[in-house]
Amino acid sequence: MSAGRTQAMCLLMATVAVGLSACANPFTAATLANQIILDADSSASQARTATFTAPGRWDLKYSWDCSTQRSQGQQQATGMGIIVYNADDDSTAVENPEVHQAGKGGQATLHFKLGGPYYLVVTSECTWRIQVLDKSTSR
Questions:
Q1: Which of 53, 54, 38, 55 is nearest to 122 (CA)?
Q2: 17, HSE (Cβ side, Cα atoms, 13 Å)
Q3: CA distance 38 to 24
Q4: pLDDT 10s digits, 35-61
Q5: What is the pTM of this model?
Q6: Is the pLDDT of residue 105 over 70?
Q7: CA atoms of 39 and 12, how far apart (whole Å)
Q8: How far apart are CA 106 and CA 9, in angstroms?
Q9: Order of strands, sheet of 36-41, starting from the edge strand that comes earlier in the sequence
């Protein structure tokens, strides 16, 4: 097979692989740079996530919804808090070390430029979800 045909075949295979991954998982459909490093949700009112390593820039997407808890009479259920820790020494992260949101529900994204090992501590009486997305190769 000629070098030109080999390159064309590799490009075609890479395009098909990206297309198939977009069908399989809508969270990674945009680009490979949006690879999910961590995906966690509420299973307890306070949760320490597993340690994850961000290779470079990364985003922390989070959301919370207190409607179920409030409909069950827990009127104090509101908001959520997230603390970002450096896993190597348990200090808080330099960028966006803490976020505290109030309200019955919402969502937001925090952007980080420094890679490394981290973990999160999430506090909320509400239903919540967090995702850490690798942005190190996006432009």
A1: 38
A2: 7
A3: 18
A4: 999 999 987 656 899 999 999 999 999
A5: 0.72
A6: yes
A7: 31
A8: 45
A9: 36-41, 127-134, 58-65, 105-112
pLDDT single digits (tens) 57-81: 999 999 999 999 999 999 999 999 9
68 vs 122: CA distance, rounded Å: 18
68: its two tokens: 């179920």
SS3 per residue for the chain: CCHHHHHHHHHHHHHHHHHHHHHHCHHHCCCHHHCEEEEEECCCCEEECCCEEECCCEEEEEEEECHHHHHCCCCCCCCEEEEEEECCCCCECCCCCEEEECCCEEEEEEEECCCEEEEEEEECCCEEEEEEEECCCCC
Contact 129, 41 (CB under 8 A): yes
Both structure tokens of 77: 């259920």
Give φ, ψ of 65 to 5 degrees: -145, 120
Q: In 3D, which of 69, 122, 117, 67 has the Cα closest to residue 93?
A: 117
